[in-house]
């Protein structure tokens, strides 16, 4: 079953459209002609980022931590 994850993103209006980044994932950014396109594009970029990270070999055991803010 697919897992639902939520990430905060930052949208910046520019003359070219909308730039969007995900502060929680360094280097993960995208853009679009408008807000909707930028949000769709960052969702794809986040999926690709997470897929690349999960394929990277790491030393040690990986654990998840759940927090409430």
Q: Can you offer a commentary on this structure?
A:
The structure is a single chain. The chain has 69 residues and is an alpha+beta fold. It has a domain at 10-53. 30% of the residues lie in helices and 20% in strands. It has 1 helix and 3 strands; from the N terminus they run βββα. The chain has one helix at residues 35-55, and strands at residues 10-14, 17-21, 29-32. It has a 3-stranded antiparallel beta sheet, with helices on one face. A hairpin with a 7-residue loop joins strand 2 (17-21) and strand 3 (29-32).
What are the defining features of this structure?
single chain, 69 residues, alpha+beta, three-stranded antiparallel β-sheet, 1 helix, 3 strands, 30% helix, elongated
Helices, strands, pairings?
Layout: E1 10-14, E2 17-21, E3 29-32, H1 35-55
Antiparallel strand pairs: 1-2, 2-3
Task: Please state the oligomeric state of the protein chains shown.
Answer: single chain
Q: Proportion of β residues?
A: 15-25%
Given the C-alpha coordinates, what overall shape results?
Answer: elongated
- Poorly predicted regions are none
* Sheet of most strands: 3 strands, antiparallel
Gyration radius (Cα, Å) is 14 Å
């Amino acid at each position: 079953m697919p897992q639902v994850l939520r990430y905060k993103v930052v949208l910046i209006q520019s003359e070219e459209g909308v730039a969007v980044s995900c502060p929680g994932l360094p280097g993960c950014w995208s853009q679009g002609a408008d807000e909707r396109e930028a949000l769709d594009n960052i969702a794809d970029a986040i999926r690709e980022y997470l897929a690349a990270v999960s394929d990277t070999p790491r030393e040690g055991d990986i654990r998840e931590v759940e927090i409430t803010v």
